[in-house]
Amino acid sequence: xxxxxxxxxxxxxxxxxxxxxxxxxxxxxxxxxxxxxxxxxxxxxxxxxxxxxxxxxxxxxxxxxxxxxxxxxxxxxxxxxxxxxxxxxxxxxxxxxxxxxxxxxxxxxxxxxxxxxxxxxxxxxxxxxxxxxxxxxxxxxxxxxxxxxxxxxxxxxxxxxxxxxxxxxxxxxxxxxxxxxxxxxxxxxxxxxxxxx
Length: 197
Fold this sequence. Notes:
By secondary structure, the chain is α+β, with helices and mostly antiparallel strands. The chain has helices at about 65-70, 100-115, 120-125, and strands at about 30-35, 40-45, 45-50, 55-60, 75-80, 85-100, 135-150, 155, 160. The chain is built from three helices and nine strands; from the N terminus they run ββββαββααβββ. The strands form two sheets. Strands 2-1-5-6-7-4-3 form a seven-stranded antiparallel sheet. The protein is globular, with a radius of gyration of 17 Å.
């Protein structure tokens, strides 16, 4: 039986145009790496797409950073909580981990998610963390891409969604007060957060 909403009109390692918005600063992105014991570890991350590789940022010494150095096979799941049956799963290889340009990339991500120019250290998390944490930019080359869309037709940037069937998706979704600080939710701005590992 075919998977509902599965798109098959793209090469296995290519992100289809219909889902590139989910590779470019999606509301939710979850990165799965492999621990030394062989278990999957999943972390919420920010990500973007440079046209060839997905880019995520972590800190030197974090568990996911050590996991990726040891085993470069990862999975990144991107989706919009307001349209949860439309998602993008990218299985790929980490091809580069570098501190060069990592801080600038992190500031760019923070600004994109905040919707205004901000510095990651001092804007998204307390500035004091800049004294103890070192950003690491990680590039992930897609090897196998799974794109799902069972949301139904919806107007997107004034154009009809190419791959959507069924009833229209709603534009907004109720957000519990405890989660209003999460980036990407409609009708609110990002508040500074505490650093987490």
